[in-house]
Amino acid sequence: MLAGITLDVRPGELVAILGESGVGKSTLLNLIAGLERAESGTVTVDGVDLGPLADNALTAFRRVKIGFVFQAFHLLPYLSVARNVALPLALVGQDGKDAAARVRAMLAAVNLESRADSMPRELSGGELQRVAIARALVHRPAVVLADEPTGNLDPESADGVITLLRECLHAERATGVLVTHSRVAAARADRVLTLTADGLAPTVLS
Q1: At 74, which CATH number?
Q2: Beta carbons of 186 and 12 less than 8 angstroms apart
Q3: Which of 80, 137, 140, 202 is least enclosed, having the fewest CB within 10 Å?
Q4: Which residue range is the domain that position 124 belongs to?
Q5: Would you state the pLDDT for residue 1?
Q6: CA nearest 13: which of 133, 167, 206, 194?
Q7: Angle at the Cα of 141 (from 138 to 146), degrees rounded to 5?
């Protein structure tokens, strides 16, 4: 159970949240995404209070305003890289030339434009996570939530992925919240907080 949490993240900022297992890091992400509802207090994303929204309105809001990056990538194995990246656009009814151009732009941003027609099985772990970053940002969400995105990567790939995520968030002016056990990954964020039973506290990494 989370209590006494206050979190304010600016557009273009990547905030890393450290904490022990079971302290509520994933619950915090779920609250921000509207996947769980707060029993008290408010959760406001891009100026919208999620509390009063009905479930269908929350789903629609999430499709437009939230991007996700997961530890396990969650790419569809039977779709090409470009078609995986295009999925969030399809969910909000965007297709055609403008959508295709946006997909190409995001693949270029993560240095994978030449892999547009590749299948996920043909990519390395680091490349798969870069595809996931492109997919998370392609529909220009207000917030990107990253849940242990470097957990399946070697240290070099992990460092590159977090650096790239931060750069893309800055470029797109999207807010980023990164949950991680890795202090190395957290150090690449603009700001680091530690979640405990007492709430969130600013953290300086040595």
Answers
A1: 3.40.50.300
A2: no
A3: 202
A4: 14-202
A5: 66
A6: 167
A7: 85
